[in-house]
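Long-time lurker, first post. I've been practising inverse folding by hand and with some scripts of my own, and I keep getting stuck on stretches where the C-alpha cells seem ambiguous. Below is the full C-alpha cell string for one chain I'm working on. Before anyone asks, I'm not after the true native sequence, just a reasonable design that respects the backbone. If someone could post their per-position residues I'd love to compare against what I wrote down in my notebook.
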C-alpha cells in the first residue's frame, strides 16, 4: 500500500535535505517532483493541482526558507497537506446506544462489498454490538450463499430470503432484528458492472425504508481513478456518509484514498488490508500520511499489539528472559502472536525509519512458516533443551517439517545468538539498575 509513492517521496526529500539552504527555485523543483509522483500514483489531476499549489504557496514563505532545518520543514509541510487532503482528523463511527442502528453498503459488483459486510460486522462486534447481516443481493449468483458462509464462519447471524425481492427482504430483516434485539443491522445491497437506473432506484427504496445511520460506498482501490469517478456518481444519487476502500493490500497505487474526499466531500472510513476476517482498519489520515512519507505509524503498531498479543504471556516471557530461561517453545508462542498482527513488511513499515531501511530487503513471511514447522516437529523436551539435538534428531526434525538439516542448524544458531544477546542485555540493565540504586543512596 503506497509503496511506490513512498519511495518517490523518499527520493525527493533526500535530495532536498542534502541542501543547506532552500530557495524558491529548488522548492519549486521539489513541488514539481511531488506533483509528478502523485499523478503517477493515480491521484485525481484537479486534486494534485490544488495540492501542489497549496504546498508551493506555503513552502516559499519565511517559515520554511528561513528555517534552521528547511528540508525537514518542507517534509512536515507536505505531511500536513497530505493529512488535510485525506480528511485531517479521524471520523470515528459512533452508533446510538438506546436504539437499533442500521448500515447500508453500496457499490459496484466485484468491489468486495459482501466481504466488507462481514468484516464490518466483526469490527463492531468487538466493540460490543450484536450485528445482523442482511443479504439483499438477490441478483449475483451465490451472493447470498457467500454472505451466509462468511456469517457462519464468524458466528454472526445472517437474514436471507431467496423468494422475496430486496426491498421486502430489508423490511422483514429490520422487523426480525428488533424482535431478536440486534443493536446493529448491516445490509448488503446488489452491485452492477456499471451504474444503471434500476440499481439506483432499488438502492434508494432500501435506504428510504431502512433510514440508515451510515451509508458506506465500497470501492476497489485497485481501480484507482475509476473508483473516484464512480463514487462521485453514487454520492449524487444516495449521499453516502463514508467510503470503504478494499484491496489496499494489492498493488493499489493509493490514488483513490488521496482523491476521494476532495472529489466527493466524504471521507474514507475504513480500508481493507487483507483477505482475513479482521483485515479491516479504521482510516486515520495523519497516520496514513506518516506511512506514505516513511515516518512509520507506531500508534497503529501498538494498537495491533494490544489486540493480538497476550498480556499475561508477555509478562511470563519477560520473567523468563530476565532469568535466561527463554526456550524454543517460548519463541514459537511469540512467533504465533506476531503472525496474528499481519504481514511482516507491513509491521516493519510502521516502525519509524524502518520502512526506508528495509525497502530493498526481501521480507518473506514464508520464512516464519518454515521456522514454525521446524519447532513443531520437535518434542516438547527438545524445545526446552535444544542441546540434546544430535545429528539423528535433526534429521528426524528436518524430515518431519519438510526442510533440511541445514535449515534446522540455521534456526538453532539464530536462537543461540538471540539468547546471547538477551543475556548481555540483562547484564547491562542489571548494572544500570545497580548504578541507579547507588546514585539514589548517595548524598551527592
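-- Answer (accepted) --
I ran through it position by position. Result:
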Amino acid at each position: 500500500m503506497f509503496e511506490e509513492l513512498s519511495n518517490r517521496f523518499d527520493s525527493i526529500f533526500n535530495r532536498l535535505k542534502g541542501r543547506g539552504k532552500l530557495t524558491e527555485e529548488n522548492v519549486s523543483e521539489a513541488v514539481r517532483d511531488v506533483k509528478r509522483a502523485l499523478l503517477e500514483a493515480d491521484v485525481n489531476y484537479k486534486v494534485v493541482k490544488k495540492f501542489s499549489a497549496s504546498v508551493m504557496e506555503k513552502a516559499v514563505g519565511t517559515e520554511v526558507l528561513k528555517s534552521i532545518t528547511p528540508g525537514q520543514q518542507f517534509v512536515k509541510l507536505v505531511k500536513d497537506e497530505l493529512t488535510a487532503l485525506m480528511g485531517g482528523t479521524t471520523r470515528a463511527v459512533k452508533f446510538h446506544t438506546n436504539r437499533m442502528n442500521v448500515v447500508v453498503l453500496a457499490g459496484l459488483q466485484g468491489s468486495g462489498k459482501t466481504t466488507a459486510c462481514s468484516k464490518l460486522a466483526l469490527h463492531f462486534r468487538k466493540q460490543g454490538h450484536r450485528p445482523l447481516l442482511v443479504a439483499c443481493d438477490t441478483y449475483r449468483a451465490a451472493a447470498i450463499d457467500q454472505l451466509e458462509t462468511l456469517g457462519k464462519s464468524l458466528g454472526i447471524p445472517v437474514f436471507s430470503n431467496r423468494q422475496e425481492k430486496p426491498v421486502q427482504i430489508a423490511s422483514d430483516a429490520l422487523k426480525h432484528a428488533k424482535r431478536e434485539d440486534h443493536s446493529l443491522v448491516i445490509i448488503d445491497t446488489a452491485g452492477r458492472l456499471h451504474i444503471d437506473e434500476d440499481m439506483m432506484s432499488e438502492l434508494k427504496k432500501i435506504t428510504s425504508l431502512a433510514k440508515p445511520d451510515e451509508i458506506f460506498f465500497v470501492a476497489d482501490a485497485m481501480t484507482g481513478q475509476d473508483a473516484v469517478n464512480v463514487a462521485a456518481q453514487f454520492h449524487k444519487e444516495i449521499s453516502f456518509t463514508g467510503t470503504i476502500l478494499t484491496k489496499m493490500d494489492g498493488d493499489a497505487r493509493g490514488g483513490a484514498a488521496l482523491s476521494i474526499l476532495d472529489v466527493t466531500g466524504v471521507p474514507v472510513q475504513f480500508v481493507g488490508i487483507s483477505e482475513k476476517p479482521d483485515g479491516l482498519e479504521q482510516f486515520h489520515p495523519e497516520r496514513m500520511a506518516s506511512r506514505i512519507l516513511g515516518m512509520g505509524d507506531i500508534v497503529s503498531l501498538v494498537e495491533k499489539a494490544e489486540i493480538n498479543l497476550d498480556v499475561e504471556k508477555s509478562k511470563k516471557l519477560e520473567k523468563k528472559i530476565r532469568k535466561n530461561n527463554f526456550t524454543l517453545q517460548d519463541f514459537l508462542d511469540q512467533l504465533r502472536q506476531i503472525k496474528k498482527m499481519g504481514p511482516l513488511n507491513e509491521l516493519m513499515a510502521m516502525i519509524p525509519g524502518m520502512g526506508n531501511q528495509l525497502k530493498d530487503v526481501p521480507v518473506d513471511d514464508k520464512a516464519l512458516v518454515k521456522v514454525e514447522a521446524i519447532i513443531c516437529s520437535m518434542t516438547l523436551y527438545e524445545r526446552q533443551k535444544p542441546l540434546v539435538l544430535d545429528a539423528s534428531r535433526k534429521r528426524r526434525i528436518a524430515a518431519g517439517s519438510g526442510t533440511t538439516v541445514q535449515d534446522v542448524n540455521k534456526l538453532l544458531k539464530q536462537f543461540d545468538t538471540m539468547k546471547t544477546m538477551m543475556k548481555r542485555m540483562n547484564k547491562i540493565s542489571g548494572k544500570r539498575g545497580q548504578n541507579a540504586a547507588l546514585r539514589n543512596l548517595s548524598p551527592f
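A couple of notes from the structure itself: The CA atoms of residues 155 and 229 lie 36 Å apart. The radius of gyration is 26 Å. Happy to go over any region you disagree with.
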